[in-house]
Amino acid sequence: MSGDTQELFVGPDGTARGLYGELIDAGALGAASVMRASHVEPADGGGWTADLSPSGGPVLGPYPLRSAALAAEADWLTRNRLTPPG
């Protein structure tokens, strides 16, 4: 076991949302669709940005490493688009 975690958030209507990952076979849950929520791209002048505009969010970065931009992207999406209303 790798120790990785993948979270799914299930709404009252039974709709599940989460960041795409390969730990859970989305097809096993029923009909699935995948939509782009952001873009992690090389930044002008070096580094990497996480552009969250497809989700109504900001452009984060630049970060020196792509992995840091991916982590920031996942964190922002989880906190702002996937957590249930409090």
Structural summary, described in words:
The protein has 86 residues and is of the alpha+beta class. The chain has one domain. Helices cover 20% and strands 20% of the residues. The protein has one helix and five strands. The strands form two sheets. It has a three-stranded antiparallel beta sheet with strand order 3-4-5. A two-stranded antiparallel sheet has the order 1-2. The protein is elongated, with a radius of gyration of 14 Å. The mean pLDDT is 87.
- Overall pLDDT confidence: 87
The oligomeric state of the chains shown is single chain
Outline: elongated
Q: From N to C, what is the helix and strand string?
A: EEEEEH
Strand content: 15-25%
Largest sheet, in brief, is: 3 strands, antiparallel
User: In angstroms, what is the radius of gyration?
Assistant: 14 Å
Query: Which structural category do the helix and sheet elements fall into?
Result: alpha+beta
Q: Helix amount, in percent? A: 10-25%
Low-confidence stretches: none
Strand order of the largest sheet: 3-4-5
The total domain count is 1
Number of strands: 5
Give the number of helices: 1
Could you tell me how far the N terminus lies from the C terminus, measured between alpha carbons in angstroms? 33 Å
